[in-house]
Design goal:
17 helices; globular; alpha/beta; binds coproporphyrinogen III; 47% helix
């Protein structure tokens, strides 16, 4: 049996691998008929809060697609259940907050509780998934980065460019600071508890950070992100995901994650120049290509692998989540293609592993 867990974890340490590890963001969602069948009987939140069902959904893509990592079946919005924030996940829309958070009073009323109290169902799911996966696949825990969770809280729902958030940062910097401080505390408890339950790495989803200009990011977002990453890194490797953020990539790297997940807007070679050789990179096939005929998908994937140039520390992924209309057969063939590409080189200067990496 393939030791997908070791293949994945070696790449996070930029050590040689027998093949490029591969998994897909949103691999456990609506593109899988088995998931859609479950969703006919249960709502998303019913599924996510039921550990037995969540473990099955978490492990499904490993069995069906042959990926080297499973991602815990959960959502970036779940920590809000402990913060006394009323929200729902609406079909076709996504998360909707009943009362967008924009005033000092609302921010003060946000509760900060232990992760086990906020999301008690999540940690049994992680423990059971870790055990079921064995060495077959690594387990990726995740949460939002503080900025992206703040986007939903302030805007009230997904938006093209989050104008209320950008206005609040500049017009009410104290409210913004208090909100980001609270979210950083909640997210570090949430993610540390995932590490302790058995997640092998955690991924911070900062899907919307690309709406910010660089100065705003550096001044009003980076310090919280850096503080969060500093609290997590002693426990496990941290991957930071963002999109449309080429203008921020070096500043994002400076906040200290072990690896960055990048989208398709920059070729991987160029992204690596900005990120530097000391981080692993995850990405970066355009998810739209999974909808294209196989020869188109195949040549797109080969281009990503050529750009990665067998550098140590490449984890193949899409540049954003699997689109719901994607055909799982295409994803399965993509996994095969990536694995057949062959071994990646290692970085001998860090072959002592993570400690060596930190010492550099
Ligand atoms: O592989 C997986 O699906 C793993 C679990 C996972 C979910 N959400 C489950 C989910 C992960 C990693 C996420 C991350 C997430 N959630 C992000 C960051 C990634 C990104 O896409 O940028 C964001 C922004 C969210 C917030 C969120 N939750 C949105 C925008 C939506 C609606 C999306 C949609 O496709 O309709 C959700 C709901 C959600 N989270 C679903 C799933 C499987 C769909 C719910 C359903 O079954 O209808």
């Amino acid at each position: 049996m393939t030791d997908g867990a070791e293949r994945f974890l070696a790449a996070t340490r930029r050590q040689p691998t027998d093949a490029t590890p591969v998994w897909f963001m949103r691999q456990a969602g609506r593109s899988l008929p088995q998931y859609r069948a479950l969703r006919e009987r249960f709502s998303f939140l019913e599924l996510a809060t039921n550990s037995d069902l969540s473990v099955d959904v978490t492990c499904l893509p490993v069995e069906i697609l042959g990926v080297d990592a499973a991602v815990v079946f959960a959502d970036i919005m779940l920590p809000l259940q402990g913060m006394a924030v009323d929200f729902e996940i609406r079909e076709e829309v996504g998360p909707v907050i009943a009362q967008p958070i924009r005033s000092e009073r609302q921010v003060r009323e946000l509760r900060v509780v232990e992760a086990e109290e906020a999301t008690p169902y999540l940690f049994p799911t992680i423990r059971a998934a870790r055990e079921r996966l064995g060495r077959r696949a690594a387990l990726v825990g995740f949460g939002a980065a503080p900025f992206t969770l703040a986007c939903y809280l302030v805007e009230g729902q997904g938006s093209r460019d989050y104008p209320h958030v950008r206005a609040l940062i500049h017009s009410e910097p104290q409210i913004w600071d208090r909100l980001m401080t609270t979210l950083t505390e909640v997210l570090s408890r949430y993610l540390i508890a995932q590490a302790e339950a058995g997640a092998d790495v955690v991924q911070l989803f900062d899907s919307w950070v690309g709406v910010l200009d660089r100065a705003t990011f550096v001044r009003h977002v980076a310090p919280y992100l850096q503080a969060l990453i500093e609290r997590l890194r002693p426990k496990l490797p941290v991957v930071y995901f963002s999109t449309a953020s080429g203008h921020l990539l070096d500043a994002l790297t400076a906040t200290g994650p072990d690896g960055l997940s990048v989208d398709w807007r920059l070729p991987l070679g160029q992204a690596w120049e900005l990120v530097g050789p000391q981080r692993f990179i995850q990405g970066n096939l355009d998810p739209a290509l999974v909808l294209a005929p196989w020869p188109v998908l195949k040549s797109g994937a080969q281009e990503v692998l050529r750009e990665a140039a067998r550098r140590p520390g490449h984890i193949f992924n899409l540049g954003h989540g699997v689109l719901p209309d994607s055909n799982p057969d295409q994803l399965r063939r993509l996994v095969e293609l990536v694995h057949e590409w062959g071994p990646s080189a290692g970085d001998s200067s860090i072959s002592q592993g993570r400690l060596g990496q930190q010492a550099i």
